[in-house]
Write a structure and sequence with these properties.
Layout (H helix, E strand, L loop, with lengths): L5 E7 L2 E6 L10 H15 L6 E6 L29 H15 L4 E5 L2 E3 L1 H8 L2 E5 L3 E3 L13 H5 L1 H10 L3 E2 H7 L4 E3 L1 H15 L4 H17 L2 H15 L3 H13 L1 H10 L9
Parallel strand pairs: 2-3, 3-4, 4-6, 5-7, 6-9
Antiparallel strand pairs: 1-2, 7-8
């Protein structure tokens, strides 16, 4: 695996930026990339000079989600999760929710596609800023059940239901209107806007950032968000046993991933079939 699967720099004082670097694969989340992102965030959390981290993606997209093309072959899970039925959704949700447990705030800088696992990663971050024309969605509901059921908490019941029943995406502008993202900017202004916000955050004493981040997360946990997301992994596990999932996997084996995804989305006229 390329040692530069993530790029790390410090673009402003006390600001760490972690760039997912698989642009040719729309930063699809293979095991080494997921592990590298979480490891880099943990390293930044332990660095006394860092007050806030940014996660973003190189190339045309933040992340198009989990790799379905066999890219994980030969790689182990990046951290241990107890086995048994539902190990995968428990594993990935534990990883993304671990960002909540970091002491310092993490910002997701989202452009292009932010789909499925990519939307889970961004949701696990403390703040989300998007390009106006970015696309956040979970098209995998067209063949299965999501791993991380965040939509009802951030989008409201009606929009969450629509997204879960159609797999349609929302733009950066609509994601802000619904409450999933903080703000949206033209894509060519996004990076500078995020750096300005990160620099503003960095003016607050570190110990206060840590406690005030926890203030918000503790309230969400007391309302049941974390328990709800964990409970949802059981529905994801059940979804792997449906005929729809069997048909989808069989189509990949027979026709290949690109053709299968195009056939899945052609009736909706979006994602791969919209261009």
């Amino acid at each position: 695996m390329n040692d530069n699967i993530v790029l790390i720099d410090n673009p402003r004082p006390h600001v760490r930026r972690i760039t997912m670097n698989r642009p040719e694969k729309r930063n699809s989340l293979i095991h080494p990339l997921r592990g590298a992102v979480l490891d880099a965030l943990a390293e930044a959390d332990q660095d006394d000079d860092v007050k806030v981290s940014i996660v973003c993606g190189a190339g045309p997209s933040f992340s198009a989600g989990y790799d379905l093309s066999g890219g994980n072959e030969g790689y182990e899970l990046p951290f241990y999760t107890p086995g048994g039925e539902g190990q995968w959704p428990r594993h990935v949700t534990e990883g993304w929710m671990s960002i909540w447990d970091l002491a310092k705030p993490v910002i997701a800088q989202v452009h292009g596609y932010c789909l499925a696992g990519g939307s889970e990663l961004a949701t696990g971050c403390d703040l989300v800023y998007m390009a106006e024309d970015a696309k956040m969605g979970y098209p995998a509901v067209r063949f299965g059940v999501p791993d991380m059921h965040f939509h009802s908490w951030f989008m409201g019941m009606r929009k969450a239901m629509e997204m879960m029943l159609t797999g349609d995406y929302v733009s950066g502008i609509e994601a802000v209107e619904k409450g999933w993202a903080n703000a949206a900017y033209p894509e060519d202004e996004l990076a500078d806007a995020v750096l300005d916000i990160a620099e503003r955050i960095s003016q607050v004493p570190t110990e206060l950032l840590q406690m005030n981040k926890r203030v918000v997360h503790r309230q969400m946990e007391h309302m049941g968000m974390r328990a709800g997301i964990r409970a949802g992994t059981e529905l994801c596990a059940l979804g792997t046993h449906t005929q729809a999932m069997a048909d989808f996997v069989g189509s990949i084996q027979k026709k290949g991933l690109t053709t299968t995804l195009s056939e899945r989305d052609s009736k909706f006229g979006d994602y791969r079939t919209s261009h």
